[in-house]
Amino acid sequence: MNYRHAFHAGNFADLVKHAALLKLLAALMAERGALHIVDTHAGAGLYDLRGPQAQRSGEAQAGVMRMMAASDRPKALDDLALAVTAANGGGAEPWLYPGSPWLIARALRPGDTYLACEMQGEEHARLAQVLGAKPGVSALCGDGFAEAPKSVDPSSRNLVLIDPPFEKADDYARIAVLAEDVLAKAPATTFLVWLPLKDLETFDAFLRDLEDACEPASILVAETRMRPLGDPMKMNGCALVLINAPEGLEAGLAEACAWVAAGGEGGAGRVWSLG
């Protein structure tokens, strides 16, 4: 696979995904009981926006740079902004962008566990360095789609984060299969799934397959459309799909999606329940 998240780190989609992740973690960790987290496509964990890949794409300018400089930043993005500041040692310039592994490892309580899967060797090496030897945290060089069903603990509360590169045609189908397999083993598992929005046909087909795979679990969808979904060759936005999510996330998700979408070209954000 040729995908490298360093090209896209801190872009508009990361703002939505990571703001949602922090809200989800806070809600789950407000409850008693250990939480086991599996990240199927973890990436490197921390990204230098001064690096050649990030500089080549320039996507962070309309993402994290916009967020950190904004006077109208919504409250829904405050936790992410604080995390970015912390990742940069309190410095004013947000040159380091924290990915999901950094955010998750920082949030863990004693007794919580986190398995970060990354199948690309170079990315895994960086990931292992970022995560270090924190108790309860492990970085696995392997296929997260295959590892997640084996790792889920039926005796614990589970969160599965799925964010594949979507370079393979079967990534959508593998998400539905993974969700079905995990829910058969641990029905109360919570999922946070990220996917690109290119065209409605692909998006709708995925949601139908996922609904069939996850029944009767609850499914919440948060869309951030940066432009109309008219050109399937472009990434016109992104979506988050939350399965078995705690109650009370909708308002914050809607606020984050709407603000991020306002930086696009006639886009919009919305949050809705499936089924």
Characterize the structure shown.
This protein has 275 residues and is of the alpha/beta class. Helices cover 40% and strands 20% of the residues. It has 10 helices and 10 strands. It has helices at 12-29, 52-57, 64-69, 78-87, 100-107, 121-131, 144-151, 171-185, 200-214, 250-261; strands at residues 35-39, 46-48, 96-98, 113-117, 137-140, 157-162, 190-197, 219-225, 237-243, 268-274. The chain has an 8-stranded mixed β-sheet, sandwiched between helices. Strands 2-3 form a two-stranded antiparallel ribbon. α1 runs parallel beside α5 (100-107). It starts with 11 loop residues before the first helix and ends with a strand.
Key structural traits:
275 residues, alpha/beta
**Approximately how much helix is present in the residues?**
25-40%
* Multimerization status: single chain
The order of strands across the largest sheet is 5-4-1-6-7-9-8-10
Structural class determined from secondary elements: alpha/beta
Instruction: Give the distance, in angstroms, between the N- and C-terminal Cα atoms.
Output: 34 Å
Number of helical segments?
A: 10
Mind sketching the topology for me?
Layout (H helix, E strand, L loop, with lengths): L11 H18 L5 E5 L6 E3 L3 H6 L6 H6 L8 H10 L8 E3 L1 H8 L5 E5 L3 H11 L5 E4 L3 H8 L5 E6 L8 H15 L4 E8 L2 H15 L4 E7 L11 E7 L6 H12 L6 E7 L1
Parallel strand pairs: 1-4, 1-6, 4-5, 6-7
Antiparallel strand pairs: 2-3, 7-9, 8-9, 8-10
